[in-house]
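Please review this one.

:::
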Amino acid sequence: MMNTADPWSVPIAVMQIPDTGLHRDLEADQAAREAMAEVGGLREVLSASASLDVTPKSGGRVHVTGHVRARIGQTCVVTLDPIENEIDEPIDLIFAPPEQIPELSDLVDEAAESETEIPDPPEPIINGLIDLGRLATDALFLAVDPYPRRPDAVFHPPTEASDPNDHPFAALKALRPDASAPNKQPGKPRGGKGG
């Protein structure tokens, strides 16, 4: 049974990462790609792969860099035709033990206030594991164009109605008092005070 929250799961134990680091090439199988398409609201995921380098850092932190590449099927928002898009998204993230996350997040906030490049906040290492498949899936979803369109698709807005009385507020015009009639308010005498 596939976990829909993590359709592509490739966990690695932090304790088993050698000091020199490790390299992983991942390829999502058909079941994982179908689950990814469902979770991501895509027509289909034709292929999904990741090439990642995992490097241990001081304090139990882990640096993960690499790329996720995918070919996805979507629907053009203009023509509603099926289209395919390529994704090539870089990955550069730090994972840290959960107890270090608040302190490291503060460092990210401080960097945001200065003019230095803002690093991404660290991700937590959960139960001593890093899920490379989930990381690749998240990066893929972030790279998806929410409004995909064919390169030659052109949106033509609806043309203006030629009949001036044929518009959404035409019925309200009939309720408006005639502008040409004198502006009389019944029940109020004109001129001086009543006696």
Notes: Residues 101-113 form the longest helix (13 residues). The mean pLDDT is 82.
